[in-house]
Amino acid sequence: MSLKIGDTAPDFEAQTTEGRLKFHDWIGNSWAVLFSHPKDFTPVCTTELGTMARLKPEFDKRNVKILGLSVDSVDDHRRWADDIKETQGQAPNYPIIGDSDFKVAKLYSMLPAEASGEASKRTPADNQTVRNVFVIGPDKKIKLILVYPMATGRNFDEVVRVIDSLQLTAKHRVATPANWKQGGDVIITSAVSDDEAAKIFPGFKKVKPYLRTTAQPRG
Q1: Residue 108, in any domain of the structure
Q2: What mean pLDDT is predicted for residues 20-30?
Q3: Residues 140 and 192 in one domain
């Protein structure tokens, strides 16, 4: 069954490049990004893993842990890390799951249950559905699911932007408009009456009865 936003992220134990972890325990009170790759030593994914390594300080600021996954062994991941450092200027500085038995990929509906065989003999095309990004909250609920095609590198700046929105809207009774960025005006949710809005968001703008905007709340 496919996972949806709002579902509890399936828990699992797995071996990674930084040792064995139990997913929910590893998340703890943080947020998490789980992003998957169809195969080691693939060009687009090489750029993505390097990009995430460079962006890690931005995720750290937001209390977000990063976890990679590729349908190959941990030993392969470690060898691949050398290429990533050489070509991208930064080796992965976060754990990457060794999923050569496809356990996690199947658990997260990225590969069909009947997928089998040796990971080393599978091609990227065999695993092309393993191109996902999951953002998971401290409550272990899935907050975002993105699925990318093989030939399109992922925009991880967008993942950071969405996390900013998720964290803001989890704390305040607001939503974010199209193309919103940190510091931009936000939308007051319909659950807030005009009287409440006047107290919580003094000076808010009523564009339409259903569209009310205000400066981004702080704190």
Answers
A1: yes
A2: 98
A3: no
Q: Would 53 be classed as within a structural domain?
A: yes
Q: How many domains does the chain have?
A: 2
* Residues marked as catalytic: 45
Amino acid at 131: R
> In which domain, by residue range, is 45 found?
13-153
Same domain, 191 and 113: no
**Same domain membership, residue 177 and residue 139:** no
Label residue 127 by pLDDT band (50, 70, 90).
confident
CB atoms within 10 A of CB 149: 9
In this predicted structure, what is the pLDDT of residue 219? 74
- Counts for the chain of helices (H) and strands (E), in that order: 6, 11
**Total-model pTM:** 0.94
User: Which of 121, 153, 185 corresponds to the end of one domain?
Assistant: 153
What order do you get walking across the sheet with 186-188 strand by strand?
Answer: 174-175, 186-188, 211-214, 205-208
Give the pLDDT score at 88. 98
CATH number (domain holding residue 139): 3.40.30.10
How many CB atoms sit inside 10 A of residue 154's CB?
Answer: 20
Q: What angle, 0 to 180 degrees and rounded to 10, lies between the N-to-C axes of helices 43-61 and 156-171?
A: 30
Residue spans of alpha helices (H) in 89-188 = 103-107, 156-171
Give the rounded distance of the alpha carbon of 29 from its chain centre. Answer: 16
